[in-house]
Inverse folding.
């Protein structure tokens, strides 16, 4: 009888440890998924900003990585909502008098006329992006004349995920 109790106790301890390991593994997988999404969103925004010529107003110097910044009509931030259920991706930016949302549907169609509702509810992952465009940045005490550094930071808005998922990426261009 004593051997049976010892065996049950050892098995209980082993199963408890295994359950903790599985839970930690699932949490790590979820965090890695969100980090991969944040990486993709940062890269996408850098590519979007890079397609404008250096003299285009869309890449005017300004922005902030810590606060939502507006210079004239330019917004240096946006919100991205990804639906796990419908496959929709919406990009919402602040405009004068409200917000404008572009919805990319799973079919590949893009609705930039606000005819399609942005994804909401269960299964939606929300990110916030901010970017900073610096002219002649200083790197290691050296001023990089004629160069622009563009930095994007993406943060997952879901506060239940710990640690907080934040990803920052930069590029330089003439």
């Amino acid at each position: 009888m004593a051997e049976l109790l010892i065996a049950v106790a050892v098995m209980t301890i082993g199963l408890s440890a295994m359950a903790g390991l599985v839970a930690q593994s699932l949490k790590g997988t979820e965090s890695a998924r969100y980090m991969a999404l944040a990486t993709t969103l940062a890269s996408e925004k850098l590519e979007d900003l890079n397609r404008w010529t250096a003299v285009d107003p869309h890449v005017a110097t300004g922005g902030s990585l810590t606060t939502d910044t507006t210079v004239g009509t330019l917004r240096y931030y946006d919100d991205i909502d990804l639906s796990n259920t419908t496959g929709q991706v919406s990009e919402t930016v602040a405009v004068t008098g409200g917000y404008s949302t572009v919805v990319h549907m799973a079919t590949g169609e893009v609705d930039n006329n606000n005819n399609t509702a942005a994804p909401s509810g269960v299964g939606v992952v929300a990110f916030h992006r901010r970017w900073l465009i610096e002219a002649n940045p200083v790197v290691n005490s050296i001023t990089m004349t004629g160069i622009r550094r563009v930095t994007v930071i993406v943060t997952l808005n879901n506060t239940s995920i710990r640690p907080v998922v934040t990803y920052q990426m930069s590029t330089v261009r003439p």
Q: What stands out?
A: The mean pLDDT is 87.
